[in-house]
Amino acid sequence: MYTLRLIPGTPDAVLSALAEVLEGSGTPFAPLPADPAGAARVRQAAAPDEPLEADCAVVLTTSGSSGEPKGVLLSREALIASAMATHDRLGGPGQWLLPMQPYFVGGLQILTRSVLAGTTPVVAGDNFTAAAETMTGVRRYTAMVPTQLARYLESEPDALRSFDAIVIGGAATSAELKARAAAEQVNAIPAYGMTETGSGCVYAGVPLEGTEVGFEGDRILIKGPTLFSGYRLRPELTAEVLRDGWFRTQDRGRLVDGRLQVIGRLDDVIISGGVNVTLPAVQTRLLQHPEVLDAVVLGVPDAEWGSRVVAFVVGEAGRDELRDFVAEELPRTWAPREVVRLAALPMLASGKVDRQGLLDGVR
């Protein structure tokens, strides 16, 4: 049984280690972020000194945006299946640009696709347009989170248009952002997936080849060859989420005209004072206010209410004004009891809002 290697989470180091495990000659590894806190989370979740479970090529650590980070075991077969299905959906292998860190699954899979395609990935660095201009592949692809897409649409739309396809993952892509990309003639493809599914496994609502989508109530279930093997040294948690070949996600969804529509997380519905509150609906309403630039709405444990609705808002609007605004369209009982005004929402390196950090700041 192999022990787990810890390697620097740089593009060159991860690319080299990936090439070895994909050809079957390398040993399993976990990439470390450069920042000490991130590296400490990986060391904790990956547990390099413990014997490694079978069927593992890479251990990636979940971002911990809403809880304790977990070590996700990805097999060589899962990595390959994801990369091949992505190329099949996009129209064939191509050259990839890497604008994100390779110690997250989205960045890692850009490098996996590059190895399998026999192409050299280009690292975006600090100049996205200059990096894109160095690409020579017949087909040109990249992947990024919605925050990056929004920024590049503002500053570098010509570079975005030069790609045959841009896969957008890591967080939900808003209808407004999709419309902006379409207006700029940018082929942005929203993808649904996570570390446990080997990156995106549903593109524009349609599962990749080999992937199946099911439901348990409105909980989204995923089945297919890209799934992870389990959580590092967490057999009970693995058994809870992997059942009969299906991965029980924490997301809620439905089929609309045959396409998967993700409608939120299971913990997006809280009970506050005996009333069920759908947090995404409150967040969507707040974002319609002309003085709200950005917002996220969370449920915070509360001794009196069970959970209280707290809105973290970027903008000038005050609490009473926002409560009234929410109550114009939604039940008054859904209006946030607390509004925390911020200069900007805190983001993790993965491009997701640091929900756990926000919760820790108000408890």
List the helices and strands and how they pair.
Layout: E1 5-8, H1 11-22, E2 29-32, H2 36-46, E3 58-61, E4 71-74, H3 76-90, E5 95-98, H4 105-117, E6 122-123, H5 128-133, E7 140-144, H6 146-155, H7 157-161, E8 165-168, H8 175-183, E9 188-194, E10 199-203, E11 206-207, E12 212-216, E13 219-223, E14 230-231, H9 235-241, E15 242-243, E16 246-256, E17 259-265, E18 269-272, E19 275-278, H10 279-286, E20 292-302, E21 306-315, H11 319-327, E22 338-341, H12 355-362
Parallel strand pairs: 1-2, 5-6, 5-7, 7-8, 8-9, 21-22
Antiparallel strand pairs: 3-4, 4-14, 9-10, 10-11, 12-13, 13-16, 15-16, 16-17, 18-19, 20-21
Under CATH, the homologous superfamily of the largest domain reads ANL, N-terminal domain
CATH class of the largest domain: Alpha Beta
Helix content: 25-40%
Note the beta-strand portion.
Answer: 25-35%
CATH-level-2 architecture of the largest domain: 3-Layer(aba) Sandwich
* Sheet with the most strands, sense and barrel status: 7 strands, mixed
- Beta-strand segment tally: 22
Report the C-alpha radius of gyration, rounded. 21 Å
Q: According to CATH, what is the topology of the largest domain?
A: Rossmann fold
Work out the helix count. Answer: 12
Structural class by helix and strand composition: alpha/beta
Average pLDDT works out at: 93
InterPro entries: AMP-bd_C (IPR025110), AMP-bd_C_sf (IPR045851), AMP-binding_CS (IPR020845), AMP-dep_synth/lig_dom (IPR000873), ANL_N_sf (IPR042099), ATP-dep_AMP-bd_enzyme (IPR050237)
Domain AMP-dependent synthetase/ligase: 44-207
Keywords: Ligase
Protein name: O-succinylbenzoic acid--CoA ligase
